[in-house]
Design goal:
Elements (H helix, E strand, L loop, with lengths): L1 H18 L10 H7 L3 H24 L9 H23 L1 H7 L10 H11 L4 H31 L1 E2 L2 E2 L14 H17 L27 H21 L1
Antiparallel strand pairs: 1-2
Organism: Anaerocolumna sedimenticola
Subcellular location: Cell membrane; Endomembrane system
Keywords: Cell membrane, Electron transport, Membrane, Translocase, Transmembrane, Transmembrane helix, Transport
Length: 246
């Protein structure tokens, strides 16, 4: 019985970490992924900040899932997520000002990160507190690992450093393009090409696995936040149609 329970808690964690990694598999949260990964330290800062918000919001939403009315659940999620983002922002500003200055506007934008709102709607709203926390940890750490790999790659080639420590020989001439906006797209394109070359399941080649742990796994047909808004609109239209018939 204990083994089954342990397996149940491990499944959502491993799912977010590997099977449905939000960066490399589902291709979610690409705005901060491309914008802040100019260095490994920035990547770690954004990844851990998002993880903290994701875990805390999953926990609270799971606790309140039977209390929040369906008609206002999306606004409720945004209020909950925004509250935790504000707390994280103040903590970074007070204790890690360098990271706070580097990330800038992208810290408040965690509020509308489709990974966080997606997990709230697709998982925390339907599962227990323990499973929701593990799901948040898995998705958060998976997102952090994705940012870290991209950030390391860009910093190493674009600046010759890793975590601001010089690792390339002095004769190395950095390719500045990697720490500029085009470099972010280039790195992402290379990773996507490798996924398709080795036929790894990913959103870009249409083979991401369908799962009840994410928004269906079909990311080609998913519009991120917009798909959730459209679903809310459809539900609202059904309620109005039913009221008109009555």
């Amino acid at each position: 019985m204990q083994k089954e329970e342990k397996k149940n808690y491990l499944e959502p964690f491993m799912n977010g970490l590997i099977k449905e990694n939000p960066t490399f598999i589902l291709m979610l949260g690409l705005c901060p992924t491309l914008a802040v990964t100019t260095s490994a330290s920035n990547a770690i800062g954004m990844g851990l900040s998002s993880t903290a918000v994701l875990v805390a919001s999953n926990l609270l939403i799971s606790l309140l899932r039977n209390i929040i009315p369906d008609k206002v659940r999306m606004p409720s999620y945004i209020v909950i997520v925004a509250s935790f983002v504000t707390i994280v922002q103040f903590l970074l500003q007070g204790y890690v000002p360098a990271i706070y200055d580097s990330l800038g506007i992208y810290i408040p934008l965690i509020v509308v990160n489709c990974i966080i709102l997606g997990r709230a709607e697709a998982y925390a709203n339907k599962h227990s507190v323990g499973l929701s926390v593990m799901d948040g940890l898995g998705m958060g750490f998976g997102f952090t690992i994705g940012l870290l790999f991209i950030g390391l790659f860009r910093e190493l080639l674009g600046n010759g450093t890793a975590f601001n420590i010089q690792v390339m020989p002095k004769s190395y001439e950095p390719a500045i393009i990697f720490i500029l906006a085009p470099g972010a797209f280039f790195v992402l394109a290379v990773l996507t090409a490798l996924q398709n070359k080795f036929k790894l399941k990913s959103a870009t080649n249409g083979s991401a696995p369908e799962s009840n742990l994410a928004c269906g796994g079909n990311c080609q047909a998913c519009g991120g936040i917009s798909c959730m808004v459209n679903r809310e609109k459809l539900e609202f239209d059904k309620i109005n149609e039913k009221a008109d018939k009555e």
